[in-house]
Amino acid sequence: MTAVHGRLLPLTVLVLAVTALIASVIWIVGGANVWWAGSTTEPAPPGYGMPMMPGNGGLPGQGVPGVVAVRTFADARRAADEFGQQRDLHAGEIMQFSNGYYAELLDSRGRGATEVLIDPASVSVFLEPGPAMMWNTAHGTMPAPAQTGPSTVTTEQAQQIADQWLSQNHTRLHATDPTAFPGYYTLHTVRDNQIVGMMSVNARTGAVWYHTWHGQFIAMQEAPAQQP
Question: For 72, which DSSP code?
Fold first, then answer.
């Protein structure tokens, strides 16, 4: 019995540690139907790194042949386009943050499809954590059954919900430029007309997910104009 107990103890500790980690990353603010990921007061990590993404078969983010580093918007766009080609998508708006690049992927009609992150050091591209994985009803890796119903939140309502949440949690920030993705919206957060970060609003439940993983905003490149 002692030997069995000795073998089970490490497993029990591991399960408790994982449970605590999940609870510290995603928790629900009571009574507000709001999801909160992490804390904006936490120091930013030195880059996105290479997380294990279920959407990539458990492999780290997809590498880009022929590119050894991502130093410019052109490099980031090429990497995002390479990733998007698997799903007939192409890169739209690209944003540079201190932790790496963010890119929205668009379909052939220029509509928002999903969102990816590009790690400059490893030249890896992967689905953005949070809404792109858990709320995206077309390209997500783990959407909850409750998220797969029809959208009930309009673009205007999404911005109102985002602003209301910011007024209670980040009083100097304002939400703007909502982009619709399957199952949710992503908006820029701004302070004094300057972009600070991003947040998302669920198109069915109105839940809010504040993006805490980007670091400081540096610059943005708009989506290229569509050919007629």
Answer: S
